[in-house]
Design brief:
Length: about 160
């Protein structure tokens, strides 16, 4: 699909914007929110596969936001990105968390500390510890959490 159609698809499917100029304005708005508009405004009808990986990730964000969700779910949203592209996504997520509930899965501890208000540490499918991010990441109460934060892996006990 084109860059435009990636964002417009959900709008059309859920009838959130009327056709024509209203859809155009909605597509522009969500591309701006995702921090992508200035980079793609001259090539909206070109295939999205021509975008860089970081741009594609921000396009996914725009496409998700366009359907006006209550919660954003992100599974390793920066895992395949270079540091600059990852920084773009993190910046957007920090802005968006003022308006949305955001649930992220991340194996990047520094990222979790930067972005999270609340952390749930899951180890081998079991919830080990949860609580405010500063508390869990700085003063963990559980032995396995402490070990993980120190780069060690303990067997289930």
């Amino acid at each position: 699909m084109s860059i435009y159609d990636n964002v417009a698809f959900g709008l059309r499917l859920h009838r959130l914007c009327k056709k024509g100029r209203e859809t155009d304005a909605c597509v522009q708005h969500y591309l701006e929110v995702a921090g992508l508009w200035d980079e793609v405004k001259g090539r909206l009808h070109q295939p999205a596969v021509g975008l860089s990986i970081g741009q594609q990730q921000r396009l996914c964000l725009a496409r998700g936001l366009a359907v006006e969700p209550e919660v954003l779910l992100g599974d390793e949203p920066t895992s395949a990105l270079d540091p600059i592209s990852a920084q773009h996504i993190e910046k957007r997520l920090l802005e968006l968390k003022q308006q949305y509930t955001i649930v992220l899965v991340s194996h990047i501890l520094r990222q979790a500390k930067r972005l999270a208000d609340y952390i749930i540490f899951i180890y081998l499918g079991e919830v080990i510890e949860c609580g405010p991010a500063k508390e869990v990441s700085n003063i963990p109460g559980m032995k396995r959490t402490r070990a993980y934060l120190e780069g060690q892996f303990l067997s289930q006990q």
